[in-house]
Amino acid sequence: MSEMSPKEFKHILVGVDDSDDAQLAFRYAINRAKTDHAKLTIVSILEQDNMNVYEAMSKDFVHGQRADLEQHVLQYEKLAKQFGVEDVASIVDEGDPGETIVKDIIPAIKPDLLVIGSISKQGVRKYFGSQAAYMAKHAPISVLVVR
């Protein structure tokens, strides 16, 4: 009997923030993208809920936060390319991470796998952890939650 070969993915979406879990998710995603010769898209969401009202009203603060996040994601993009993933893109958006990824980003870019970390970190960048269950339940594609 021939063994079934595991599915190869063509386009992997990985959610990143600065948590240890996100690092694990990213490492898994770049390994998988390299193995499958898949396109890799790295996404990070600026979560408005974590800002106080004065910060949220300040365009400079939001702009600064977004610029920091964009730099952070570009570092991930650079690492993926250095690792040998040939087709790498990145997206920075604002809003509720789970909803933004499921309702906006997945339909727009049509990946076939979403890779995310599981643990929520407190503080400015607890982006994905609490959102993992939401994304696993509602995403129209396979979701891998890395622990």
UniProtKB/TrEMBL annotation:
InterPro entries the UniProt entry points to: Rossmann-like_a/b/a_fold, Universal_stress_UspA, UspA
Subcellular location: Cytoplasm
Presence of the UniProt keyword Cytoplasm in the record: yes
Domain of life: Bacteria
Pfam families from the UniProt entry: Usp
Statement: the UniProt record of this protein carries the keyword NADP: no
Record keywords, A-Z: Cytoplasm
Family recorded in the similarity comment: Belongs to the universal stress protein A family.
Protein name: Universal stress protein
